[in-house]
Write a structure and sequence with these properties.
- Helices cover 39% and strands 15% of the residues.
- It is an alpha+beta fold.
- Strands 1, 2, 3, 4, 5, 6, 7 and 8 form an eight-stranded antiparallel β-sheet that branches.
Length: 418
């Protein structure tokens, strides 16, 4: 199998045929999916709380799109005028993503500026596809950041001049959109050095500074199972954890996160955040010295939300330490972030709870989703290292981790040229 961004790609055979419905089917499907999102003004067809609940993952739900290879090629030709030379699937969590390249021998007047590196066709899961306002918000945030000189995928308009459409695939409505492919390696493919960790912290702080003035009405009341503030909902999925000691550890972490962090969440600084700055969503390129790597850009805005800025840091910190396989390395990342955006001592005290909560969220939901798709080992990619980090943080180093991070960050700043 080929590899792209350290994720297995599957070659797809090509066969041409036309789907038996017109493009304006999108309007009909929008009506079928009418229980979509709450705008918080009380004017929707169901109470805001019920709508919010309808957009959260429920135990037993399988929301991953059921897509055939022929569907992909036809969608590209019909919606974007693209005749495909190559299609590969990128294994994803609960969406279906396809890396595609155009046939350069076929003229396509629908796309004015062609991306030489190819495109990613994203078919969103059936749950997220219910919330079209969020799809628009994600497209707008990528367009906004591109103007702010932050490298990220830019959405491509379809034949109707829209940045997405709603398509019925195997009887289920899914949002379909096309993004420019950002070339390069991803974070997890390269050696994890202190230089890269520090620069990741700097980059995330700059990204959040760029997002500080961005707003979209869809983010005002947006919620998903993956938001850190929804960690208590993970209790509904704990049945997927078969080891009793680990299940008890998860319950302990959730309870502590509720009492220590969620109880004061209203006092924290809120803004639109990326929400999933992890090892698979950071694109890197060789540094000028050719011995290290620089951050080139960021991808995947599926978890973007208006949330505490502290949660952005805690989520990213979790994945930095998972990749470095070192608890102390988190201090270097934090030093990078704080060099651009200082973190108060009070907020620093909350971070270890945020890290533990994110680990529980990732580990439990990964096990649950794998139970639905047992052949997708991508879902288990953080299990071994994740449980090890959680147990070390919570059982061995919890009382001393603040000092550990502070010391590691100080040592890096005083002993290197960054």
């Amino acid at each position: 199998m080929e590899q792209w961004n350290n994720v297995e790609l599957t070659n797809m055979s090509k066969k041409s045929y036309t789907l038996n419905h017109a493009y304006n089917m999108a309007e009909k499907l929008n009506n079928e999916n009418a229980t979509v999102t709450s705008n918080g003004n009380g004017s929707d067809s169901e109470p805001a709380k019920e709508q919010t609940e309808s957009l959260l993952l429920k135990p037993g739900s399988d929301v991953k799109p059921k897509v055939e290879p022929d569907d992909v090629e036809n969608l590209l030709r019909r919606l974007y005028g693209i005749t495909v030379s190559d299609v590969k699937e990128i294994l994803a969590y609960d969406d279906r993503n396809f890396l595609i390249h155009e046939d350069s021998n076929v003229k396509n007047p629908l796309i004015v500026s062609h991306c030489p590196h190819g495109y990613v066709l994203k078919i969103m899961n059936s749950l997220d596809s219910k919330n079209e306002k969020i799809v628009d918000a994600q497209n707008q945030v990528m367009l906004y950041l591109s103007k702010q000189q932050i490298k990220c995928p830019r959405p491509i308009a379809n034949a109707s001049g829209k940045y997405y459409s709603v398509e019925k695939l195997n009887g289920t409505a899914h949002v379909v959109r096309l993004l420019e492919f950002v070339p390069g390696q991803i974070f997890r493919e390269v050696p994890i050095t202190n230089y890269l960790l520090f620069q990741s912290g700097e980059y995330l702080a700059k990204l959040d500074q760029a997002l500080k003035d961005f707003s979209h009405e869809a983010y005002e009341n947006h919620t998903t199972t993956w938001l850190l503030q929804n960690v208590p909902r993970v209790r509904e999925f704990l049945f997927a954890v078969k080891d009793q000691e680990r299940k008890e550890l998860c319950e302990e972490v959730i309870e502590a996160f509720e009492s220590k962090v969620l109880s004061v969440v209203s006092t924290l600084e809120h803004q639109v955040i990326h929400g999933d700055f992890n090892e698979s969503n950071i694109v890197v390129e060789p540094a000028p010295n050719q011995t290290d790597h620089n951050i080139k850009g960021v991808i995947d805005f599926g978890d973007t939300s208006k949330s505490p800025l502290l949660f952005e840091v805690g989520i990213a910190l979790t994945y930095m330490m998972l990749e470095a396989k070192d608890l102390a390395s988190g201090g270097v990342f934090l030093a990078g972030f704080a060099s651009i955006k200082p973190i108060s001592s009070t907020e620093l005290g909350y971070l270890k709870y945020c890290v533990a909560a994110r680990l529980v969220q990732s580990l439990v939901l990964g096990l649950y989703t794998h139970s639905l798709h047992p052949t997708n080992d991508y879902l288990l990619s953080t299990q071994q290292a994740g449980w090890q980090l959680l147990e070390k943080l919570w059982r061995e180093s919890f009382d001393s981790v603040d000092e550990l991070w502070s010391t590691a960050g100080h040592q890096y700043l005083t002993q290197s040229n960054k």
